Amino acid sequence: MRSQKLRNLDLNLLVVLDVLLEEQHVSRAAERLAMSQPAVSRALGRLREMLGDPLLVRTSQGFALSARAELVRQELDTALRDIERVIEPPEFNPAIDDSVIRITGLDMEIGLYVPKLIRRIRREAPHMRFEIVRQENDSFPMLENDIVHFSLSGLAPMSAQHSLHRRPIDDMEVVCLMAESHPLAQQPMTAEDYAAAPHGLVSITGHGPGSMEQVLAGHGLKRTVALRLAGFTSVADFLEDSRLIFTLPARIAEKIAAGRALCIRKLPAPLTAERVSFYMYWHDRYHRDPKIKWIREHFKHVAT
């Protein structure tokens, strides 16, 4: 615990003391501080009592600093600068900042948005560093526990909503992704055809139904999930030359299909899935941090 003297300290007295020690004259100090002379004299009296020292002593030429005041003068300027740093908003200079920014998300979400973000940021912050942290099931506890600064997710938090902030990144329809050689790739596809085909599913947890199960059930249909994957990276490898269908957000499907023998098809009528939205999440502890605010502003320019 801090000393009782420090607990009872009026910081304004230190500002007065700083000027008094420099001017070594009550009237001149009062003028610089825009205070009355009696008010500065009273402040000097309180300082003398607090420090147990006269601070300013009379000489034939006026006032001079006591030995204690000489020691205080050497330390006071540094102390006041330190206090100013504590109470002033933190400064952020991207040109010299070498902080590590930690981001989590699924592999495809990271691949869609983060490389563009980093390229943009490093034009102004060439020394800033980035870590892509593996997402363990639910990324929101990672924000809560200060493991990462940002999470990219299409999910909504199940807890701690009050401490999380988010900004929309992207919004897109859901499409079917299949091999170019798939029997349904070049012919009309009915809802029954879709349901009857073997399906692949990307699941973070590795269990539980996909979002299309409820859509199909509304039409009296059911599909078979023949393959579950924990991420998007290998989807193309499993799709090519197979009879699988993956149902994915359009932008992710486009990225997976690039340069591969794959085909993107719309969901067959009357199946309609809700559009998928992606968000950037961050914790309230960083909401007002100038560096994190600066990064969020840059993200607005790289989000599709």
Topology pattern, helix = H, strand = E? HHHHEEHEHEHEEEHEHEHEHEEH
CATH superfamily of the largest domain: Periplasmic binding protein-like II
Strand residues, percent: 15-25%
- Find the structural class using helix and strand composition: alpha/beta
Uncertain parts: none
Average pLDDT rating: 87
How many beta-strand elements?
12
CATH architecture call of the largest domain: 3-Layer(aba) Sandwich
Structurally, how many domains make up the residues? 3
Distance between the termini: 52 Å
The CATH C-level name of the largest domain is Alpha Beta
What characteristic shape results from the CA principal axes? rod-shaped
> Rg from C-alpha positions?
32 Å
Note the total helix count.
12
Helical proportion, percent range: 40-55%
CATH fold name of the largest domain: D-Maltodextrin-Binding Protein, domain 2
Strand order in the largest sheet: 4-3-5-12-6
Characterize the largest beta sheet: strand count, sense, and whether it forms a barrel: 5 strands, mixed
Explain this structure.
By secondary structure, the protein is of the alpha/beta class. The chain folds into three domains: 4-87, Arc Repressor Mutant, subunit A (Orthogonal Bundle), CATH 1.10.10.10; 100-171 and 277-302, 3-Layer(aba) Sandwich (D-Maltodextrin-Binding Protein, domain 2); 174-274, 3-Layer(aba) Sandwich (D-Maltodextrin-Binding Protein, domain 2), CATH 3.40.190.10. It contains twelve helices and twelve strands. It has helices at 4-7, 11-23, 26-33, 37-51, 67-87, 107-124, 140-144, 191-196, 212-217, 235-239, 250-257, 290-302, and strands at residues 56-59, 62-65, 100-105, 129-133, 150-153, 164-172, 174-179, 198-202, 224-229, 245-249, 262-266, 276-283. The strands form three sheets. It has a five-stranded mixed sheet. It has a five-stranded mixed sheet with strand order 9-8-10-7-11. It has a two-stranded antiparallel ribbon with strand order 1-2. A hairpin with a 2-residue loop joins strand 1 (56-59) and strand 2. Helix 2 (11-23) crosses helix 5 (67-87). The longest helix has 21 residues, at 67-87. It is rod-shaped. The protein starts with a helix and ends with a helix. The model has no long low-confidence stretch (mean pLDDT 87).
